[in-house]
Amino acid sequence: MTIAPRHILSALPLLFAATAFAQTAPAKPKTSAEILAAAPASAWKAVPDEDLLLLDLDSGARVVIALAPDFAPVHVANIRALTRAGWFAGITVNRVQDNYVVQWGDATETKPLPAGMVTPTPAEYERSLAGLTLRPLGYRDAYAETTGHVGGWPVASDGKAAWLTHCYGMVGVGRGMAPDTGSGAELYTVTGHAPRHLERNIAAVGRVLDGIEALTALPRGTEALGFYKEGAPRPAIVRATIAADLPAAQRPHYQLFDSASPAFGEWVTARANRKDDFFIRPAGAVDICNAMPPVRKMPA
Amino acid sequence: MTIAPRHILSALPLLFAATAFAQTAPAKPKTSAEILAAAPASAWKAVPDEDLLLLDLDSGARVVIALAPDFAPVHVANIRALTRAGWFAGITVNRVQDNYVVQWGDATETKPLPAGMVTPTPAEYERSLAGLTLRPLGYRDAYAETTGHVGGWPVASDGKAAWLTHCYGMVGVGRGMAPDTGSGAELYTVTGHAPRHLERNIAAVGRVLDGIEALTALPRGTEALGFYKEGAPRPAIVRATIAADLPAAQRPHYQLFDSASPAFGEWVTARANRKDDFFIRPAGAVDICNAMPPVRKMPA
């Protein structure tokens, strides 16, 4: 008996290839990929140029991050100020901890912060739910009373406060023991099973939309907490840019699937009830970090 | 203002370094690391030599996997047969999909399986709860009525059936579209946010106890589903061994924290209510994949 690896574990978030296959069996419920492919343009929301942070690494890779000013406005303003001052150029990835985070910042801890930053920075770990349109996910969550989506963002709430969930690929602000010690100069992204216990303890400021593999496939740090050993080679950020600062023709454009669209609800239901040819028993549920809003890159 | 990266995000599963610090503040509740460090020897359960699979890669790294015969006995017997026949020697890692799986097997799909295997292999996706002592985790779960632990294993149940949860580091059996097409020759480990929807759809056969970074830090595959491109270099397994087949002095020994121990319950409670110097607001809950039983390697 031989195995056909290319058919194994085919149930993937964005398996557009499945579309053609399913068209031959029209009686089946649509897969989440089919729903996504059929969604109208209005179901996608552009990430504003001012919220798109581009990190160019010395490996030649680019990591694209969407910032979330609706959730951490002061931190996001600080990150824009750091970017525009050129502060991120030359800083390094200092920590790669398996199943946890990849973290970058000033390894020397001596680089002065630029003017125009708010420090100490308020502890923007949550905000008021008021003013946000939260589409509830509709399934149980271990950590929060409610999870769901606001536009293209994964969110949790206790009915009064709301905060970004700490899922794979989300970007947070490193800090010291005191809550107001994270300025935005030290950032990390989640690279393992969602450490949801960090929510409301740390500022989440965005999400990696593209290029995360340039961070996740880095050699793991060998020291405590996954820090690189003193003297070990460290990947460097050679340039950081806010997309709005590029000439219009050079700006990359990304869109997030918008929870305000009816197609979004269909997509969540399909994610929770996978019925493609691989699945025998649909879960009947999905957790918020397995329901991250799809991203697409638009032509320039 | 400078940042102290080494103090950032210090809330880690096994931060034994925190012990000394906390001793100066005895009024605080014990951290999960302190509970673990203080647990009696009886709280740890040895992984049997017959259940310990050692994969030596051409990089020189060793990946250590605990097999779970209580959950997938036929698959585990097949994996032992494959190992003892030398079948895994020379096979390659063929798929590295970010935030999902690393998968290894016979890329040529032509290598004949050895004698002594049961094929087609029964679809061991779940078993009866009867005969298992499940310690309920005690917190909500999106996917299952109950999650908890059986010995050193993370388990979910609907009250009748029980199955291993598909958490980071768990090992599963690749298969084709038909449920009985996975023999154990094609294996993968979970390397991202837990794809819990795979539970009851695929056989989980074990857990990576050591060396997972030799798999998770591999370059991501560039083809659909994260497969490596035809002709791209593929990491190879040069030798696979069941620990029981080694001379006694050469066998590695691993232990799992045992859910039957009272210390285990204290550990879960501390994981759900982190109150060390970093945490401002304990979550009050933990999900099963953030409560993976701790592992320790014993001296030879």
How would you describe what is shown here?
The structure is a homodimer of 300-residue chains. Chain A is α+β, with helices and mostly antiparallel strands and 300 residues long. The first copy, chain A, has a domain at 46-254: Cyclophilin. The first copy, chain A, contains five helices and 16 strands. Chain A has an eight-stranded antiparallel beta sheet. The first copy, chain A, is globular and about 60 Å long. Chain A starts with 17 loop residues before the first helix and ends with a strand. Chains A and B meet through strand 4 and strand 5 of A and strand 4 and strand 5 of B.
Features:
homodimer; 300 residues; alpha+beta; Cyclophilin; 8-stranded antiparallel sheet; 5-stranded antiparallel sheet; 5 helices; globular; disordered N terminus
Report the biggest beta sheet of chain A as strand number plus sense, adding barrel if it closes. 8 strands, antiparallel
Oligomer: homodimer
- Any idea of the CATH class of the domain at 46-254 in chain A? Mainly Beta
Structural class of chain A comes to alpha+beta
- Assigned CATH architecture of the domain at 46-254 in chain A: Beta Barrel
- Helices of chain A, by number, come to 5
The CATH topology of the domain at 46-254 in chain A is Cyclophilin
Q: In percent, how helical is the residue content of chain A? A: 10-25%
What topology, given as strand order, has the largest sheet of chain A? 4-5-12-11-13-3-2-14
Biggest chain pair interface: A-B, 86 and 86 residues
Q: Could you state the CATH homologous superfamily of the domain at 46-254 in chain A?
A: Cyclophilin-like
Ends distance of chain A: 48 Å
Averaged pLDDT of chain A, please?
A: 91
User: Radius of gyration of chain A from the CA trace?
Assistant: 20 Å
Can you tell me the residue ranges of chain A where pLDDT is under 50 for at least 5 consecutive residues? 1-23
User: Strand share of the residues of chain A?
Assistant: 15-25%
Shape of chain A: globular
Order of helices and strands of chain A: HHEEEHEEEEEEEEEEHEEHE
Say how many strands of chain A there are: 16
Protein name (chains A, B): Peptidylprolyl isomerase
Signal peptide (chains A, B): 1-22
GO molecular function, one term (chains A, B): peptidyl-prolyl cis-trans isomerase activity
Domain PPIase cyclophilin-type (chains A, B): 61-244
